[in-house]
Amino acid sequence: MTVELSSLEERELEFIVGRSAEAAAFTRMLQENCEHACMILHVYGTGGIGKSTYLRLCRRWAKQQDAIFVLIDSSDFIHTEQGLVEAVFKQLPPVPATGQPASCNLNGLMDSLHFLTLERRLVLSFDTFEEMPEMESWLRDILFPRLPKRTLLLFSGRYPLKGRWIVSPALRERICQMELDYLNLPDRMEYLQKCGLDNPELMEKLSYSTRGHPLSLSLAAAAYSPSSPAFGNDYFDEVIELWLREVPDHELRKLLDAASLLHIFHHELLAFIMDEEVSSKAFNRLIALSFVRRSQRGWQLHDLLREFIRLRLQKRTPGLYKRLKQRAAQYYADALLSAPYTEREWEAGELFRYTGIKVARALMSEQEQRSYYWETATQSTLADAVAFANWRENHIKPISGVSVDPETGTSYSIEYTAEEIRLQLKPIDLSEVFALDPSSIKLLRNEHGQAKALFVVIPIHSNTLEWLESDPLCSPYLNALTREEKDKLGTPPERPAGWFMRCTYYSDLLDPAVRTAGIYLIYSYMFRGGVFVSSPFVNEISRRAYMGFGFHEVEGATHYYYDGITPTPTYAVDTQGAKLQDFLERLFSRTGLEWQEKRQEKPGVPDGPVKAGVPESSLDGDQLLTKREKEVAKLVLDGFSNSQVAKSLYISEITVKKHLNSIYSKLGITKRIQLAQKYR
């Protein structure tokens, strides 16, 4: 797509210095003959080294050569195959009519890309690649081989591509990797001069103190620019204050404080957690700040500034901090209740940013979880899973450790004898499981691609029931069900009725980062709209963990599989239908948050951008509708579609449908035309 850059973006790019070698590499690959297969360019380096800036430069260079440029950020989509396909589709230019619209799936995407690249090059770029590790195998093994020849795949991340990216000679010869380094002395001086600094002594001091690290250099230049006083060596704290000078009044500071608590925010969410109306004018001022950037799901504060403000808010006003956190958790809990099954992954992930479970806080390490990622086994990585399982079964040592909940001081012992570990690690035929359903095998890797854990989580559907009924660990659960309950499990493979966690292998159970990754994987299955079942080896820590997570013991599903002597319970959690709210209420209760049974309408966007023709008074007579429902009704009566209503009120289409259902219920109607008849 030919992307038009704003005048501000063009001006910012004029301040970029160095990177001539990197520029040459991109333009050369864009111009190269690519008749055999598409190419991959991967730039990597530490945080603040300028990876995102480099992609912006590539976007400008692509525009100059009339290439289609698609930029995907890791935070802009749900990390699933379908989520990525949808994200790419949204940025593609329109495809001339071919008789029927392209299907929004992988095949439809490939058809569109092949058509668009008949005469133009395509650059498919991924920023913060290290934050989408669960997609790596799929990108490499499924997407990459199917891309058109005239495609340049552009990655930016913190680490070089390793493992299977470079094992294959055919793949390796298609990859160019470049590490972005610090700026050299001439480039530093050139940058400082462009920023208006002309004191040689000061410039040398800043050059030395930052070592040419691009982000540090830009912060230092901002602190010592001619329009600001000299702040000495403590320039970073002062640069934070420089940013905050863009926020001169109390109203905007208040919005900024609330936004700092949120990973990604938008108008509706911000108004909800503040529990008050946020005017369109105020919100527009917030998103116009220089340190706020647009993402596909809303807006984000600059990471460094967001963390600074959040910690300050937590320290100075702990009561307000807790209330905002409570409201954020409630917002995503509501979203889970209203969103369809296919949209729950994002909401579940956001919910657990604001909630925690007592035993989970002790077992997890929030700071270390990013360095590990789960990947679903493919044909090329199945051998890795088998090798890890074999290694684990042959390296058995006793485990003894203690984890402490940092908030309450409660300690939890993690104790397993070598014999107990051996009993847990009874061999399972992974090739058989892979043939049964490839999505069953999940392999945890660290940033270097090394395997650190293996989970076998088998979907429950018509194709797996026979195997599950024959398995000694799974069959007790199925045998405990009534015939009617068991029949409901025979769903189509594409929509499992649930999942059975058959086994979990850890390289080191005392590693909090590994445990954290395992717990988050469990969370993801708990919110998939089915029953999630597990029957781990009997141990005090596992019992407390499962009960703490909200699982219950399945009556009649106790077995003696592990050692033939010890009774082992089966745990299950069911989030199907109305059971989801019951689970969320228990989650809030366990984490000290208050579940609001009768919540008020989400305060949000006032009438600013809404220009409806139906007067307010014409909707007041009934006295049954809330203020927000009246706003929705007014727009509907003016002929607005659900999508137009959502855009006008800065809410989602799902929320619009929710309001309409409430309006219809209160007024005793079922259609839009009946709404029009009632008020006319």
From TrEMBL:
<dbReference type="GO" id="GO:0003677">
    <property type="term" value="F:DNA binding"/>
</dbReference>
<dbReference type="Pfam" id="PF00196">
    <property type="entry name" value="GerE"/>
</dbReference>
<dbReference type="InterPro" id="IPR036388">
    <property type="entry name" value="WH-like_DNA-bd_sf"/>
</dbReference>
<keyword id="KW-0805">Transcription regulation</keyword>
<keyword id="KW-0238">DNA-binding</keyword>
<dbReference type="InterPro" id="IPR000792">
    <property type="entry name" value="Tscrpt_reg_LuxR_C"/>
</dbReference>
<protein>
    <submittedName>
        <fullName>DNA-binding CsgD family transcriptional regulator</fullName>
    </submittedName>
</protein>
<keyword id="KW-0804">Transcription</keyword>
<dbReference type="InterPro" id="IPR016032">
    <property type="entry name" value="Sig_transdc_resp-reg_C-effctor"/>
</dbReference>
<feature type="domain" description="HTH luxR-type">
    <location>
        <begin position="618"/>
        <end position="680"/>
    </location>
</feature>
<dbReference type="InterPro" id="IPR027417">
    <property type="entry name" value="P-loop_NTPase"/>
</dbReference>
